[in-house]
Write a sequence for this structure.
């Protein structure tokens, strides 16, 4: 099935550093969502974006819905060890089902 | 309500056996989704329900797979004659009407041996 292009595939950073990851698609989406998944668990919703150009924050997380509606990015500021996990972007269309990226594996070194 | 609940969390089965998974969505959510996730990949859409009606099925959902949501509350996903390629995490999610924000359960990890 179709998946979004998510980059980078993995990141290894020091605690306190900022992180940026992005997602691109050849298709337009009405909604962009960002999820975090821990090993053996289901994805947990972090941020939802509904309008092109929208910039939304949730604590240390900031995400933007690209103007072209074909991309989104997620920033994490001042990373902490519990930020470790896999981050997924997901695009939502008019039928409400989600198309996911392959994920970005984040490792934070204390 | 504590969120989307899936049962069992883990299932090991022999090839050729049938398995059934259950999902209980968040109570006020009328949309329910099933996704499948394999190692190193993001979740892939399988099917979704609005109330008891199954509105869309992915081509990934072969004729060995069937999903039901008989009373518009919980849902079951059955896999008949399991194959090793069916080994994956099966995720259930639910959402409010006209909302794209989907909330996921903890998943059922299926291993076919």
């Amino acid at each position: 099935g179709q998946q979004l292009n998510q980059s980078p595939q993995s990141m290894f950073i020091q605690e306190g550093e900022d992180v940026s990851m992005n997602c691109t698609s050849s298709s337009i989406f009405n909604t962009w969502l960002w999820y975090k998944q821990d090993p053996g668990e289901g994805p947990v919703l972090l941020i939802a974006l509904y309008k092109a150009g929208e910039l939304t924050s949730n604590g240390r997380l900031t995400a933007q819905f690209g103007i072209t509606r074909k991309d989104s990015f997620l920033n994490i500021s001042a990373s902490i060890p519990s930020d470790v996990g896999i981050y997924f972007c997901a695009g939502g269309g008019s039928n409400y089902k989600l198309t996911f990226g392959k994920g970005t594996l984040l490792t934070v070194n204390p | 309500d504590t969120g989307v609940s899936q049962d069992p969390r883990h299932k090991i089965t022999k090839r050729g056996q049938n398995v059934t998974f259950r999902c209980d969505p968040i109570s006020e959510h009328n949309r329910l989704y099933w996704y499948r996730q394999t190692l190193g990949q993001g979740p892939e859409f399988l099917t979704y329900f609005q109330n008891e009606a199954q509105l869309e099925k992915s081509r990934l959902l072969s004729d060995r797979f069937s999903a039901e949501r008989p009373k518009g509350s919980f849902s079951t996903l059955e896999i008949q004659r399991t194959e090793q390629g069916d080994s994956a995490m099966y995720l259930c999610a639910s959402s409010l009407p006209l909302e794209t924000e989907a909330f996921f359960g903890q998943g059922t990890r299926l291993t076919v041996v």
Q: What stands out?
A: The longest strand of chain A covers residues 85-92. Chain A has no helices and eleven strands. Chain A touches chain B through 27 residues (CB under 8 Å). The mean pLDDT of chain A is 94.
